[in-house]
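Before relying on records like the one below, remember that each one covers exactly one chain. Contacts with other chains, cofactors or solvent are not represented anywhere in the record.
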Amino acid sequence: MAALARGRGGGGGGKGKPKTPVRYSAQLAVRLCRRLARGELLYQIARSRGMPTPEAVAKWARDKPDFAEALLVARRAGGRPAGTRGPAFTHSDAVDAEIFERLCEGESLTAIGRDPTMPSLSTIFYWRRRRPAFEEMVQRGMRIRAEVVSDEGWEMACAATPETAYLTQVKLNHLRWMAGVMAPRVFRLKMVEPIKGPEEVKTLFRHFGVEVDPETGAKMVVAWCPNPETDAVEREDTPGWRPPAGYVRLPGG
């Protein structure tokens, strides 16, 4: 994720290309604070050539108290209330677009919420609850991120060796779960019922014969029918005989 964050910087490079690290200097700090004081957003400033990434600015603020104080003053002058971590509490199309872009690049909402230039995670979830359009955008970004995760899994599988196969399998299992959570309609494993075979149909053929009644001497037609349960051929005029279960006599039979 850190690599993705570095790749979003300006530096004149194309989108996704690593940004050249920028060293701290007093002159650069002054330029940065002036632009913040004019109301520019830090993640927009970071895209300019020669400017540091938001992560670098946050590190400088932790390591240099004087710069942290100047940064706070510049943010107040730029219209951000004291104590905020950047433009987190001002909803705008620019912030929405940044969150969506970072989701599409594979970054998690948790990582975005940790960025001092972005809304906190609680704010993002508050917006998701209160703004249906924002929630729809986040869901769309999640689906795209699931595609990114799926591609990463394929690359990991192709790069696996006998020595790394077990660790790769562990990672792939988690990536599969992540993709299923982010895009359940596409990637969540579905329980599939076994395919049912064709319904078994048994056909019984009745056999007819002509016999002479020993008492009257008259000829009569006698029928025999196989019993599918006992595999025995039974005479239908036997006392107590009943047709087999499910027996259906076809027309003319």
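The radius of gyration is 38 Å.
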